[in-house]
Amino acid sequence: MRRIVCSVLAIFALVFAQTAFAVPPLKLGIMPFNSALALIKTHQPLRLALERRLGRPIEVFTEADYTAFVNESLAGRYDLLITGPHFAVMSIEKGYVPLVHYKAPLQPVFVVRSASDITSAETLKGRSVALSSRFSISSIGGMKWLADKGMLPGRDYQVREYPTHGAAVAAVAVGEADAALTTHTPLKQVPKDISERVRLLPSDIRIPHLMTLAHERLGKAEVELVRQALAEFAASEEGMQFFRETGYQGYDNVTEADIRALLPYVSLVRQQMNLGAH
């Protein structure tokens, strides 16, 4: 359904853009960490900035779940990609060029109700933990953190999956789950009446944030133009407002150290998704 909504909206946008652009559109795939409409609304300033700078329309796509999105990404469906850092490493092996990651550190955190008696990882024992997906980097990172403390899903706590980070947090707010695994940035994007009813149990995990990539089929010149467009967007008033509202803080370059730090998480998600090494 999300993909259908995005595709319909993209078609309308493309019809209106035909008089302004004489080149084919680029397909921007965004990992489904939020609802399709929320993703489109949040990324509208970026989409418009890229259209202006690249001189061609941008169609936004997402998928109904992480597995479908990763499969489409690895198949090269998208020209541009905003995805989880562990998925980005997998996509690089399939022809994508890493451009930037968000400057804010991606820190998996546990969300509990404001009045909850849960105060530490140990007090999660016997409770239910909501996830946006078992394959999200917050879920992979948070569950690894618990495993390092001797706590395993199904034995020490129960896992409940929800479509998005916002839905997982809302489940905690209304009492459907005892805790949720998420990160700081999705919390900035949930309704205020939800965020006011929960509090955080921080972890000590730090992971590079969502990455933006371009497929190598665009050619070196076009990839470099996309890189420049992202830098100009980050320096613009619209870009600075985007980063303030989302909590992403800006862009940083992707380094070899970032890739190395992600390899343990890539191995875990490959095992869970039954994907091969390449």
Describe this structure in words.
The model is unreliable at 11-19 (pLDDT under 50). The protein has a six-stranded mixed sheet. It has a five-stranded mixed sheet with strand order 7-6-8-5-9. The protein has two domains: 2-105 and 208-273, D-Maltodextrin-Binding Protein, domain 2; 109-202, Periplasmic binding protein-like II (D-Maltodextrin-Binding Protein, domain 2, 3-Layer(aba) Sandwich), CATH 3.40.190. Helix 2 (36-54) packs across helix 9 (220-235) and helix 9 crosses helix 10. The protein has helices spanning 2-17, 36-54, 66-74, 85-92, 137-148, 165-173, 184-187, 192-195, 220-235, 237-246, 256-273, and strands at residues 26-30, 58-61, 80-83, 96-102, 109-113, 128-131, 158-161, 179-182, 198-202, 211-215, 251-253. It has 278 residues and is of the alpha/beta class. The longest helix has 19 residues, at 36-54.
Could you outline the blueprint of secondary structure elements for this entry?
Layout: H1 2-17, E1 26-30, H2 36-54, E2 58-61, H3 66-74, E3 80-83, H4 85-92, E4 96-102, E5 109-113, E6 128-131, H5 137-148, E7 158-161, H6 165-173, E8 179-182, H7 184-187, H8 192-195, E9 198-202, E10 211-215, H9 220-235, H10 237-246, E11 251-253, H11 256-273
Parallel strand pairs: 1-2, 1-3, 6-7, 6-8
Antiparallel strand pairs: 3-10, 4-10, 4-11, 5-8, 5-9
Helix pairs in contact: 2-9, 2-10, 4-11, 9-10
Structural class: alpha/beta
Determine the CATH topology of the largest domain. Answer: D-Maltodextrin-Binding Protein, domain 2
How does the overall form come out from the CA principal axes?
Answer: globular
**Any idea how many domains?**
2
- The CATH superfamily of the largest domain turns out to be Periplasmic binding protein-like II
**Low-confidence runs:** 11-19
Q: Share of helix among residues?
A: 40-55%
